[in-house]
Design brief:
The chain is of the alpha+beta class. The protein has 5 helices and 5 strands. The protein is about 35% helix and about 30% strand. A 5-stranded antiparallel β-sheet has the order 1-5-4-3-2, sandwiched between helices. The model has no long low-confidence stretch (mean pLDDT about 90).
Length: about 170
């Protein structure tokens, strides 16, 4: 599977653009299930909201859970690289290390799903779309570890949340 270009599949190229967000969410749910172990639950979500007149940070703040706020938005020059760097490696469970070694079937499947997610997101987000890595400040619980990516495209703000609780 190494080097396969998921965006070349007709399922990605020909998907109705209004169906793509749900396709991404479905792939993320499968990836959550694959990576789940005892005391290792992933939460991967994709949300979208119209850009408010107050800007990206205010729009993102409205999308976050209560008692959470935007601590920082750091520009990301290449959102596909940021997603690819996080998925699945950042979220691979610590137990059963032999199952998660490079080349092992579960790892290959997780990497393929991550590639599929990036290919689908590319239908929603141009490669050069404005993107930021989000740091969240919370007065409550959020996630033990997370990668949050914010992308602005044509008057809409997307929030990709990739989190794990241990």
């Amino acid at each position: 599977m190494t080097g396969f270009e998921w965006a070349t599949l007709s399922a990605a190229r020909q998907a109705r653009i209004d169906a793509v967000p749900e396709m991404v969410r479905h792939a993320l749910r499968v990836l959550e299930d694959l990576l789940e172990e005892a005391d290792h639950a992933c939460t991967f979500t994709l949300d979208v909201a119209p850009l408010t007149v107050d800007g990206v940070a205010a729009t993102v703040a409205a999308m976050l859970p209560q008692r959470c706020e935007v601590a920082a938005l750091v520009p990301v020059p290449d959102w596909p690289e940021a997603v690819g760097a996080a998925l699945p490696g950042f979220f691979v469970p610590g137990r059963q290390p032999q199952a998660w070694e490079r080349g092992a079937a579960p790892r290959v499947l997780a990497e393929a799903l991550a590639g599929w997610v990036v290919a689908l997101l590319a239908r929603l987000w141009p490669h050069d779309a404005e993107a930021w890595e989000l740091t969240v400040r919370t007065r409550d619980w959020y996630e033990a570890a997370y990668v949050d990516l914010v992308v602005r495209v044509e008057g809409r703000v997307w929030l990709l949340h990739l989190g794990v609780s241990d």
